[in-house]
Amino acid sequence: MTDDPSRHWKPQTALVHGGTQRSAFGETSEALYLTQGFVYDSAEAAEARFKGEAPGFIYSRYANPTVAMFEQRMCLLEGAEDARAMASGMAAVTAALLCSLRAGDHVVAARALFGSCRWVVETLMPRYGIESTLVDGTDPAQWERAVRPNTRLFFLESPTNPTLEIIDIAHVARLAEANGARLVVDNVFATPLQQKPLALGAHVVVYSATKHIDGQGRCLGGIVLSDKAWIDEHLHDHFRHTGPSLSPFNAWTLLKGLETLPVRVTQQSASAARIADRLADHPAVARVVYPGRDDHPQAALAKRQMSGGSTLLCLDIAGGKAAAFAFQNALRLIAISNNLGDAKSLITHPATTTHKNLSDAARAELGIGPGTLRLSVGLEDVDDLLTDLDRALAAA
């Protein structure tokens, strides 16, 4: 058996060439296979393919050549054995959580989650008899105390949305392993370039590919990555029968996004670091949270666990909601949007957008105040962004 040379490629190479399958035409760009189904040479060939005795595609809800290229390229980047691409990040999160759970099981999750992720844990899963406990993810003792005999899954995102808390992935992974459970990590804020959850011991990694992977505001997508045995045993049938499949066109778009991911994330992170330093010294800003700064509450863990500071930062505007709204409305270059990881800089007010469904007490527990804003730094010249921010802060 010959060694696959792609396994030894550096990330920048894998993101350009990984998983490419050329047709007989020898196209330079990946081929876009916009097809629902596939034909067979004979009835016997169809039977063999459905029985798994012969390789090949059956139906694009199950698998598609363009989607398969995206999955293979992400596996090379993440260091995963297998993956399933899905229609959105929330489709990926929901499938990753529910595919291996049943009534009577228990999940331990960090309380700092994206609003829809928290809804799945707190509202959806109990409808099917799945219990959950939310913990302060930054406190290892709370993870340990929450474990029950029926705990089957641990779930976290790190850095968290929107306050950029850092959770010790390796510690939670060891705890899961010791209790016969699995750890699912939402790695969207760090990107697969700045944090490797599988290398830290996590069992499953999920992404909203809508964010940095596309990174240009064009399409939705998500992906779940893990070892092949888990995907075969738990995710495969769930995926085939519930139908959260990714459009081949979106997969093709995401493949194009992956080619420039390192260039974009490197520049965005460098700009985010400069902006965080400037905002930290501004009198109109009560707080700045950025994983690349030494004043981050988990700075040592961030340096140990991440290879970069992320493209996002969290800030609190002094003066609460009114001042935060005045600040956003005064921006001329940075756009108000609840998306992130885009080539364009985007800002949102979590208390009235992404986390609006949480109670005031729950938001306060997460550090989301009336003046809290999440800034996703884009590819604009950083000096232009700083000028825009300074002008808006004067208005606030």
Structural class given helices, strands, pairing?
alpha/beta
* Shape descriptor: globular
Side-by-side strand order of the widest sheet: 1-7-6-5-4-2-3
Helix content: 40-55%
* Share of residues in strands: 5-15%
Largest sheet: 7 strands, mixed
Give me the strand/helix succession. HHHEHEHEHEHEHEHEHHHEHEHEEHEH
CATH architecture title of the largest domain: 3-Layer(aba) Sandwich
Unreliable parts: none
- Mean pLDDT comes to 96
Number of strands: 12
Total helices: the number is: 16
CATH fold group of the largest domain: Aspartate Aminotransferase, domain 2
Number of domains: 2
What gyration radius follows from the Cα positions, in whole Å? 22 Å
Ends: how far apart? Answer: 64 Å
CATH top-level class of the largest domain: Alpha Beta
CATH homologous superfamily placement of the largest domain: Type I PLP-dependent aspartate aminotransferase-like (Major domain)
Verbal overview:
The protein has 396 residues and is α/β, with parallel strands linked by helices. It has two domains: 5-259, Type I PLP-dependent aspartate aminotransferase-like (Major domain) (Aspartate Aminotransferase, domain 2, 3-Layer(aba) Sandwich); 261-395, Aspartate Aminotransferase, domain 1 (Alpha-Beta Complex). The chain has helices at residues 11-17, 43-50, 65-78, 89-98, 115-127, 140-146, 169-178, 191-194, 210-214, 228-242, 248-259, 261-280, 299-305, 320-330, 360-365, 382-395; strands at 82-86, 106-110, 131-135, 151-157, 182-186, 204-208, 222-226, 285-289, 312-317, 335-336, 346-348, 372-376. Strand 4 (151-157), helix 7 and strand 5 (182-186) form a beta-alpha-beta unit. Helix 1 (11-17) packs antiparallel against helix 3, helix 3 packs parallel to helix 11 and helix 14 (320-330) crosses helix 16. The longest helix is centred in the C-terminal third of the chain and has 20 residues, at 261-280. The radius of gyration is 22 Å and the shape is globular.
